[in-house]
Specification:
224 residues, single chain, two-stranded antiparallel ribbon
């Protein structure tokens, strides 16, 4: 049994238009069940603690409906404050996406320090959709940027455009472009199709359809 910490946004508004934000519901629900169905444990931490905001809940999605009625969702709504968590107790950390994360994790020194420490100690770090925004601006002990030369993916500009996520009004930057600027070797598939990239102990997925497969790849790395 392995222990996974989901690190979740606490931001409920995005862009100059102050649009609703938070974590993307299925990007917690789908991976949560992949982990627990394999016998692993999941805990939840958020930047501010307590009840994190969410968007995108769809009751027609069976896994999302199951999760919103579960004890897991109840625990998520009493998430630990990240600064109170000993992340060294976990075998892996996972960043579900959602636009809120593009505000409260890009330059958060605590988040940067956690990613640096976990990465350098060989622990698994997963992120999906907008979750890889947490990987921006992480400096390793040798002074290099975490993303330099790493195979990475995330939600793409094409997907932002299809979702009408305009720069400024909805999103503060194009995530794929920022990852590339920081040295990432970026790859992707067509919009809204599942796509996962693994580079050593980093696992990233492109969009909500990729969330389960990110978890499955993390499980593979944790158990082999």
């Amino acid at each position: 049994m392995k222990h996974i910490l989901f690190i979740v946004t606490s931001t409920n508004r995005t862009g100059t238009g102050k649009h609703a934000a938070g974590y993307e519901f299925s990007e917690i629900a789908d991976p949560y069940y992949e982990f627990i169905n394999k016998g692993h444990t999941v805990d939840f931490a958020s930047i501010s603690g307590g009840k994190p905001p969410y968007v995108g809940y769809n009751s027609s999605q069976k896994i999302s409906k199951k999760f919103i009625e579960s004890n897991g969702f109840k625990r998520l709504n009493f998430s630990h404050k990240l600064s109170d968590v000993d992340v060294t107790a976990y075998d892996a950390i996972f960043f579900p996406g959602g636009l809120g994360l593009m505000t409260d994790m890009v330059d958060n020194t605590l988040v940067k320090g956690i990613i640096k420490e976990r990465y350098e100690n060989g622990k698994i770090i997963g992120a999906v959709c907008h979750g890889p925004a947490a990987l921006l601006n992480v400096k390793l002990t040798n002074g290099s940027n975490l993303l330099k030369g790493k195979k990475i993916n995330s939600f793409t500009k094409a997907e932002e455009e299809k979702d009408k996520h305009t720069l400024g009004d909805v999103i503060p930057f194009m995530l794929d472009e920022e990852l590339i600027k920081q040295g990432a070797i970026f790859s992707h598939t067509e919009p809204f199709k599942s796509y996962v990239v693994n580079d050593r102990n980093l696992v990233t997925g492109q969009n909500p359809a990729s969330a389960s497969n990110v978890a499955l790849k993390m499980i593979d790395l944790l158990t082999n």
